Amino acid sequence: MKDVAFALGLDPEKFFYVIQHAADGTYYRDFDIPKKRGGVRNISAPRKGLALAQSRFASILCAHYTPKNFVKGYVKGQSFLTNARYHEKQKWILNIDVKDFYPSISFARVRGLFISPYFGFNERVATILARITTYKDGLPQGGVDIAIVGKYNCA
Question: pLDDT tens digits for 44-66?
């Protein structure tokens, strides 16, 4: 636990408290926002201590992320326009929106990703990182690090 706290530049005692309470909702503020095409999107915004841990972890992940050439979303220098240019001469384009994409990426999947040879974390560290990354057994909409963790899970 201390090693992870130090790697993230956090006070170990405060980080331990955050880890102990991340799953019980203490460090999230839940609310709904309307979707453009009807319905609502549940947002689980991390509170101060957890948001800081997620932000520090996301910075580390982003610094080491090398996207595949077909990945355009949330990549520096890329946008929906560069993605459109990539496909402009195609006869057909299929656009898919995965329902509840981030919440469908479970704690077990995130933990498994961190244990995988790509990251190579031991089980203890992978569990700690998955605890600060997931909420209600998925990546929370509103989490600071969900986009980068979602990308690692897909590409």
Answer: 999 999 999 999 999 998 888 77
What values do phi and psi take at 98, rounded to 5?
A: -80, 120
Range of the domain at 66: 2-154
Global pTM value = 0.85
What pLDDT is attached to residue 128?
97
Q: What is the CB-side half-sphere exposure of residue 22 using CA atoms within 13 A? A: 29
CA distances from 1 to 59, 110, 129, 150, 153 (A): 19, 18, 10, 24, 24
State the DSSP string of 18-80. Answer: HHHHTTTTTTEEEEEEE-TTSSEEEEEEE-HHHHHHHHHHHHHHHHH----TT--TT-TT--H
pLDDT at 145 over 80: no
* 75 vs 126, more confident: 126
Angle at 61 between CA 56 and CA 65, to 5 degrees: 150
**Is the Cβ–Cβ distance between 110 and 153 less than 8 Å?**
yes
Please tell me the distance from the alpha carbon of residue 49 to that of residue 43, in angstroms, as a whole number: 18
Q: How many domains does the chain have?
A: 1
Extract the tokens encoding 68: 């595949």
